[in-house]
Description:
Blueprint: H1 2-7, H2 11-19, E1 52-60, E2 64-72, E3 80-91, H3 98-104, E4 106-107, E5 111-115, H4 119-133, E6 147-151, H5 166-175, E7 193-194, E8 197-198, E9 201-207, E10 216-225, H6 239-242, E11 264-272, H7 278-295, E12 304-318, E13 324-325, H8 335-359, E14 363-364, E15 370-371, H9 376-385
Parallel strand pairs: 5-6, 11-12
Antiparallel strand pairs: 1-2, 2-5, 3-4, 3-12, 7-8, 9-10, 10-11, 12-13, 14-15
Helix pairs in contact: 4-5, 7-8
Amino acid sequence: MLLAMRKAGLLCAAIVAVLLAVSLPADAVLPFRFGLFAAGPLDGITDVPGVRVGHVTKIEGQSIRTGATAVLPNADPWDHKVSAAFVAFNGNGELTGTHWIEESGYLEEPVVLTDTLDVGRAADGVVSWVIEHHPAVGRGDDVPLPVVGECDDAALNDIQARAVSGDDVVRLLDSAATGQFARGSVGAGTGMNAFGFKAGIGSASRVLPADAGGYRVGVLVNDNTGSGRRLLNIVGVPVGERLKDVLHPVFPKRVSLKGRFGYGSIIIVIATDAPLDSRQLRAVALRAALGMGRVGLTSYVGSGDLIVAFSTSRVYERTADFTVAAPVRQIVEDDDALDALYTATVEATQSAIYDALFESKTTTGNRGVTVYGLPVQQVLEMLRTAGAISS
Length: 391
């Protein structure tokens, strides 16, 4: 597909299109769009058919600001395992179960995101949920290795309270659904922040043209990155530099952001309906880091920047005797289609991080800490003035 573009003399125009945005329909989540490829109708990871998302949000008193978010590749990943891969761009964080993803080449549980000290509780909930739906687990059937990712929300949340329970996660997984879902300060993103602004859950999608396979790529992030305010870049506009002196988080004197506490993390979940094997999905996951870089993320020493990617159309089916059958669908072998998937992943990751910032609201939490939301209208005016988006 890219070769055809070059032959048609359109490559330069296409590159310019990455920087010049046009308006999205009024019902889109992010209030602008950019890039080579169109967003799906939901502009989220659930634009990939079959993918389900759910949240549980825990806001209690003045101190609890946390929750959990789940991404399921289908209704029953235990029986219908999907091709998958994992990349640790920077490893000062946790995404459990990834050794088996790398070894087997597939994902067989939901991906659950939560705060750092609730990883064990979330994993317990995943196990309970799998047993509830598959009573032979551990009694003749195999046992699950839960996939749970964390970010540290201790700036706004009393993380020591460990407010997310196993039962919360069971309810969360039962409620996960296709279709549109909430973004911003919800679920695992309730207590998160990035670039000194409130952040959390963001999502986006891209749809490839028919000559590149017509595949869909969806990305969901839990953004809690600690990169400095001045690094924030939105479609080529140095927004962070222009906002460097305003709306800084309010921390009482007894609160200090030092060491790992001040670094933050990001968990990125990538879904596609392109039939890719684990090797190809690892290549896709690596491209998410380019999307991070476009926004201005540096991935500091203390960052846990972890990425998991899966294909909903390359499925390892469980048989009646609990063995796993290899997929029969052939993988994508066209280099132009793969290049388009890489580009779509970069764009969707970039857009999902923007979404996390645009959808999150000012929050006051534990110990009186306040983190302000991005001043959306002011930022949109910056982008219009710079010609980065249309009016």
